[in-house]
Structure formats: C-alpha cells, structure tokens
Amino acid sequence: MRRAARERVETAALLAPSVVLLAVFVLLPLCIVAAYSFALRDPYGAVLPGFTFDNYAELFQGVYLLVFVNSFKLAAATTVLCLLIGYPVAYYIAFKAGRAAPALLLLLLIPFWINFLIRISAWVVLLGRGGLVNGALQASGLTDAPLGLLNTLGATLVGMVYAFLPLTVFPIYAALQPIDRRLLEAGADLGAGPAETFWRVTLPLSLPGVLAAALFVFVPSMGVFAIPVLLGGGKDIILGNLIVQLFLEFRNIPLGAAVSMLLLALSGLGILAYMRALRRVEAMR
Amino acid sequence: MSDPSDPAVAVELRGVAKRFGSFTAVDHLDLAIRAGEFFTLLGASGCGKTTTLRLIAGFELPTEGHVLLGGRDVSEVPAFQRPVHTVFQNYALFPHLSVLDNVAFPLRVRRLSRAEQRARAMAALEMVQLQGLADRKPSQLSGGQQQRAALARALVNEPQVLLLDEPLGALDLKLRKEMQLELKAMQRRLGITFVFVTHDQEEALTMSDRIALMQGGRIVQLDTPTGLYDAPQSLYAAQFIGETNLIAGRVVSSGAAGTVVETLGRRMTLPPSAVAAGDAVTLAIRPERLRRGGGTDAPEGRLEELDFIGTDLRLVYRMADGSRLVLRQQNDGGPMPTPGEAARIAFSPRDLRLFPTDPERTPQ
C-alpha cells in the first residue's frame, strides 16, 4: 500500500511540469478565448462582460460561410496534393532507397531548421517577377515576359504543399516501412502484377499512415494564415486571416474569438473523423 | 540433359548461377524435376536451396543460365506471370484480408466471377479443413491453421508446380509430423509437382521422391531418400543425412580385388575404391548397422553413455583405439546394458562407406 502511494506521488511529480505548462499556456488562454466568444463589445472595440450567442449567430451569415468554404477548399486541395506527392516520395524511401533512406528522411527535415516565415519568404523571391522561376522560363524560351506567378492560388498551393509535405511523407513512410516484403512477393507469386499488388496489398496496408498524413495536413491547413497572405496576396479570405483581421483590424474580439472556437471545433471533428476511419481500417485486419 | 519438350520434366535448370555482388548463392546448377514428383532441396542454411527456389518462382532472375517450366524458358519472365505458386516460410498471408479473401486472391486477380471465386476458395479451404474459419483474419489463426490457409491459397489455382519454402519450420514437432504426412498425401492425390525446401534431413527423407543435397550453391548428391541414406557419395552427405559414425582408417592395399583397410585395430576388405596404399581414409557406418556381441575378431569397446529413446536404445562405446562409436539397437526387451560394461562390436564390412580423409573434416 505504501509502495503504491509512493508510486502515485512519483507519477504526479513527473507529470506536474507538463500539466502546469499545458494548463497555463494552453488551457487557460483557450478558456479566455472561449469566454470572449460569448462576450459583448462596445462600438470602439472594448470587450464588455456579458453572455450572448450573437457572435456565433453572426458567423452563419453568407460572408463568413464563404470564408469557411474557402478554407475548407484550400485545406482539402492541400491535403490531396500533399498525399499525391508525398505518397510516391514515402514509397520510394521505404522500398527503393535502401541504405540512402535515413539520409533522404533527414533531407526532408532540414528545411524545418529554418524559420517558417523565412522559408515562405524565399518562395516570394523565387516566384517573383525577377525570380528564379521566371528567369528560368524566359531563359529556356518558354515565355517572353515574366509571368505573374505570385499572388495566385497556384502560388498559395505551392507554398502550402511545400510547408506540409514532410508531414505527409513521415507517417506514410512509417506505415510502409514495416510492411513485410514477402507479402509483396506473395502478391506477385499469386499472379498479381506490380500495379495490382500495390492496389490490393501495399495501399490497404498503408492506409493508417495515409489517414494520419491527411489529418496532419488538413487540420493545420484549415487555420493557416501566413502562406495565403504572403504568396496568394490574401485575396481569398480564409479563416486564418479572418481571425487576424477581426482581432487586429476590426477590433471585434468577441467575433474573432467565436471564429477561433469554431475552427477549434472543426479541427476536433477532423480528429474524430480520423479516429473513426482508423478504427474501420484497423478492424479490416 | 533432358529433352526440353519432354512433358515429364516440370522444372528444369540449365547452368543456372545466381550471384549477389561477389557472393555466389547458386553455382551453375543443372537440375531436372519430373512432373508429379515430390522433390526436395536439402541443405544447411546458406547452401543456396532457398535461392534456387526463388529462381524457380521468379523472385530472383538468374545471373547465368536458364530456368524452364514445362519446357518453356521463363528465365526473364517475372514471378507474377509464372504458373507456379509458393507456400512461404512464414506463410505471408495478407493481414488485411480474411482467410477466404486470402485464398480467393489469385482467383480475383484472374477476374473470375464472384460466385466462382467463392466456390473455388471454399473448396480449397475444405480440402485443408478450414471451411469453418473462412471469415477469420490470419492473425486469429494458430500457426498450423495459417499454414493450411497458405497451402489452400497456393493450391486454389491448381498450379503446375508448388514451391514450398520450409513451410513446416515454424510448427511444433507433433504438428510438423502430421503436416508432413498430410502434405505428402495431398501431393500424391493432386499429382502436382512439389518442390520442397528444408534443412531438416529427416523431413526430407520422409516426404521426398528425390532429394538434392546442396552445399555451397551446388548439388552434392541427387538421389532417392534410400540412396542418399544408404549410399552417400561424399563425407558431407554421410554426415548431413542421419547419424553416422566416422572412423579413421588407413589403406593397406588397394586393387581390383578390393581395398584392404586397417581400422579399429582390425583389417578388413572393402569393395575396390580409388585410393592408394598408405592413404588416410574415413570410414562411415550408420549406428543401426552396428551390433553388440560378436566373435573375438570383433573390436572391443566400453559403454560410455546410454540413451533410452523408447523404441530404441542409443549406446555410445569408447573403442580400444580411442575412437567413439554410436550404436543403435531396438528396445527388444532384453537386459539393459550398464555403463562401463565391455562389449565386442560387430558389423559387416559392406556397411562401411569409405571416403578419402578430408583434412578439414577429421573424425573425432
């Protein structure tokens, strides 16, 4: 009994720092934002104490719904592109790279050592009128004049895929890597060509990784802010810059808080959907 | 070399070599496996038996030489287009598919109708008595059941040749014995050519019509089980197959009338052999060909160990010249010898196999 009590104290002591950290820096601010989302405001932007659902009701107006749709589209497009590009990369590293695999995985990580904003700013330079991409296009004779690559949806997607690609490669690699190679031989042995073996064996076995990758990309993509502003010119309002505008420009803190809470709820839904899908995939085996 | 169009040859290897970098796994192998035969590739690990099987399956392509299946050169044909199926060492059942879907996999690949897939897969499962477990996942089966499921999956397409890569290695002894008999019976009934890989010589002897004993990527001896056991052509074969006594000897004279050898302090005449007087030789004799008792001309030894095996007694004698002889006799209910007891050990010279002494393999 004494020993059990001591173990409990030890566990509590070990957990305490992270619990305190999370409580003070995540849970508490979250509660404050939640409280703000039900608060009132005066015409000059000051938050007034009170309780109202008006802020949430306002979100269901057309303008804001459009913002949600825009965000959803961008996140979905980013997720699909990341999976389409990331899967072959992960496949190559897991099955074909051999001893070069650890080095390739490291190469994927290296850009993360550089500040995110600097990396995205680099794309501004690359895609700009005098940038490397336009320079190369003109030098090769494909175009005569510089193209307006920047401030387009394409530029936004390039930046999004660039930022989130490693988050797709790693979980898919982690799912592909442990697949027993003899299962692939068994597929071939039983008459399935490479494409069919992939479709019937490799892909189903790697689905948990694909689902995790989709989650890792989709959820942060919904709240992304800097990339669409820097590369897309902020033309399509999405959730991330809507929140920034509401807080900083329109000084409508309660409404901004409500948008934030809704975004959080959507992310939660995304995680729930992931867990349900994962359970279904796991039940398949 | 046999005629390539000979329908009696199911699998043929012609001068097949397989190298991985500087390592030669299979070294210029010539081999013809007859249709309907239970053929075993036997050898210690690293002898090239599994690589040979993988060359037939198409998982490896030969560095040199040709692989023929039913007379057709398939050397460059990928695995999925070859009319052979494999039972893998650890079964390689698809973990995400049910037992039924696993067995139906090759039928689905062939785009058979759903109804036919199901009917034939169920028939294959019935053949291995797994019909009641069709909807389970492989992870819910025992080792023996997984083995049967893998067998059903490999047989459902009625391949010309079934390749089996140490399929019984993961089973416990009793189940392994059962499966040996079952596999053999199934092979006879279906008339399919089985190419079986094992390192277990007893398993090979029990099941095979013919055995290729391999070492260092080459076939040391290709023979029937009785041939391999009773007439090993090399010291390696004599030692690898079954238990054998190796006794040092010296050639006294060698001629057309026979070879006279001195061993265990006795002289005996063996059939003629390509050795010269004065050569050091190794004589091999099976433990069950030795008898206790014998005339005064039989060498004498002292019992050192006695193992009671149930049906048999295994007796280890230390001979007067220091060599050690293992003797097996049936447990016939007679009085049990006691350790320390002296006995004369008799045997017939025709049960001795004579080999030139390999300096790397000196007996005791």
List keywords for this structure.
heterodimer; A: 285 residues; mainly alpha; MetI-like fold; two-stranded antiparallel sheet; 75% helix; B: 364 residues; alpha+beta; Rossmann fold; OB fold (Dihydrolipoamide Acetyltransferase, E2P); 2 domains; six-stranded mixed beta sheet; 8 helices; globular
Q: If you had to describe this structure to a student in words, what would you say it looks like?
A:
Chain A has about 280 residues and is mainly alpha-helical. Chain A has a single domain (about 60-285), classed as Orthogonal Bundle (MetI-like fold), CATH 1.10.3720. Chain A contains twelve helices and two strands, in the order αββααααααααααα. Chain A has a two-stranded antiparallel ribbon. In chain A, helix 3 crosses helix 7, helix 3 (about 60-95) crosses helix 9 and helix 11 runs antiparallel to helix 12 (about 255-285). The longest helix of chain A is centred in the first third of the chain and has 36 residues, at about 1-35. The mean pLDDT of chain A is about 90. The mean pLDDT of chain B is about 90. By secondary structure, chain B is of the alpha+beta class. In chain B, helix 2 crosses helix 3 (about 115-125), helix 2 runs parallel beside helix 4 (about 145-155) and helix 3 (about 115-125) packs across helix 4. In chain B, a hairpin with a 3-residue loop joins strand 16 and strand 17 (about 310-320). Chain B contains eight helices and 20 strands. Helices cover about 25% and strands about 35% of the residues of chain B. Chain B is globular. In chain B, the strands form four sheets. A six-stranded mixed β-sheet of chain B has the order 6-7-8-3-9-10, with helices on both faces. Chain B has a five-stranded antiparallel β-sheet with strand order 13-12-11-14-20. A five-stranded antiparallel β-sheet of chain B has the order 15-19-16-17-18, with no helix packed on it. Chain B folds into two domains: about 10-240, 3-Layer(aba) Sandwich (Rossmann fold), CATH 3.40.50; about 245-355, Nucleic acid-binding proteins (OB fold (Dihydrolipoamide Acetyltransferase, E2P), Beta Barrel), CATH 2.40.50. The chains are: A mainly alpha (about 280), B alpha+beta (about 375). Chains A and B meet through helix 8 and helix 9 of A and strand 6 and helix 2 of B.
